[in-house]
Design brief:
By secondary structure, this protein is α/β, with parallel strands linked by helices. It contains 17 helices and eleven strands. A six-stranded parallel beta sheet has the order 3-2-1-4-5-6, sandwiched between helices. The longest helix has 24 residues. The two termini are 51 Å apart.
């Protein structure tokens, strides 16, 4: 039988130049690299991406940097130097995508705004990520994940009634990165049809605002969702319930069929389903305190294991509150072989496989680059001689 040709990665042949830092843009470009794109990450010679210095928890490397930067090539350029900008423009002339998430206004001051780049490189796709967008009164306001969460109202509905809390992960950065990723894919597809590049922008504020959708619609009733801890402002029963052994089980009832089955098979009190206080979703929310007391009375007779067994048998959604260690060792991750090892300057590091699962293509999980690791190789590729590279380094351009 003739040998079969391995399937091509979806983005094989695509080159991305990323003038990126911290989380949002690096998270987007890591996913492009996993789909086969070549991602050339531009970093400052004096320390590189600031996320490299956030912590030293992964064999001396930063957990944030390790998370968002595997599979890339690191090139150091001091873009404030003309010689370094000349290198960058040589890269852009060969690139398919340029992405940046510099401070407000910095890209335009460097001549790297969308309008200038689109004029110079008609097939280039230009993506800019900002905190609040390039127009409006907040366009020049600095933005970090927590601050955007605050401005978008997320903290007003997250935490306990007494204590507002940010999300435990950088959701504003992640949302911005995900919209940049999907926008770049759409722009590449559009270029296939038109032959022309394009430009678009993503703001963290707009991204997290979209994710606040249900809460905004809820608020149109005149009553904004309150902070309910692990409970839900519009659904009951939902959240944590203590069991008789001092542990906790989490459950969620999403529809009337589940509610009736929960009452009959888990609580073994089918009449509760028809109690006017609990007969529909809004009624259960209005009488949440009585409802939770009733469920707590029953669950107090069970161990957590027995409660979970009853819930599973009745096909009621439930979960345990795992720690990070529990998640790392989660049987679902183990059974599906989700953990892999990637190379790094500090040796092998465990990493979860990308969430996209293709039938005939395994997303790439390339090494985490050292600062400037690929600078010389990329410059040689652009035609620079060893002596010219030495001059660039001596001048502080690289």
């Amino acid at each position: 039988m003739p040998a079969t040709t391995p399937p091509r990665a979806p983005l094989e042949g695509i080159t991305v130049v990323a003038l990126e830092q911290v989380i949002a843009a690096p998270f987007a470009t890591r996913q492009l690299a996993e789909l086969g794109a070549r991602v050339i990450k531009i970093e400052r010679p004096d320390g590189g991406d600031s996320a490299r210095g956030y912590d030293r928890t992964v064999k001396g490397l930063s957990s944030h940097f390790v998370w968002t930067n595997r599979g890339k090539e690191s090139v150091t350029l001091n873009v404030k130097r003309p010689a370094a900008m000349a290198v960058l423009h040589k890269l852009l002339a060969r690139a398919d995508v340029f992405i940046q998430n510099l401070a407000p206004g910095a890209a335009d001051r460097l001549g790297l705004g969308a309008k200038a780049l689109r004029a110079a490189y008609p097939r280039l796709i230009v993506c800019g990520i900002s905190g609040y967008g390039t127009s409006g009164p907040y366009r020049e306001k600095k933005a970090y994940d927590l601050l955007v969460q605050c401005e978008a109202g997320l903290l007003s509905i997250t935490g306990t009634p007494e204590t507002p809390s940010k999300a435990g992960i950088p959701v504003a950065d992640i949302s911005g990165g995900m919209y940049a990723f999907s926008g770049i894919l759409a722009a590449l597809y559009q270029r296939e049809r038109t032959g022309e590049g394009g430009a678009f922008e993503v703001s963290l504020f707009d991204g997290i605002g979209e994710w606040m959708g249900y809460a905004m619609h809820f608020a149109q009733s005149g009553t904004a969702p309150g902070r309910t801890g692990a409970k839900h402002a519009a659904i009951a029963p939902y959240g944590p319930f203590p069991t008789g052994d001092g542990k906790t089980v989490f459950l969620s009832i999403q529809n009337e069929r589940d509610w009736q089955r929960f009452c009959a098979e888990v609580l073994e009190r089918p009449a509760i389903a028809g109690d006017p206080r609990f007969a529909n979703g809004p009624a259960r929310v209005a009488h949440r305190t009585e409802l939770e007391a009733l469920i707590g009375e029953v669950f107090g007779r069970f161990t957590r294991e027995a409660a979970v067994e009853r819930l599973d048998r009745a096909d009621i959604a439930n979960a345990s509150m795992n720690t990070m260690a529990d998640f790392i060792a989660h049987p679902q991750n183990t059974a599906r072989e989700r953990w892999h090892q990637v190379d790094s300057p500090a040796g092998k590091i465990d990493a979860l496989a990308p969430p996209l699962e293709f039938a005939d293509f395994a997303p790439a999980m390339g090494p985490i680059p050292g600062l400037g690791e690929h600078t010389d190789a990329v410059l040689r590729e652009l035609g620079y001689s060893p002596s010219e590279i030495g001059e660039l380094r001596a001048s502080g351009a690289i």
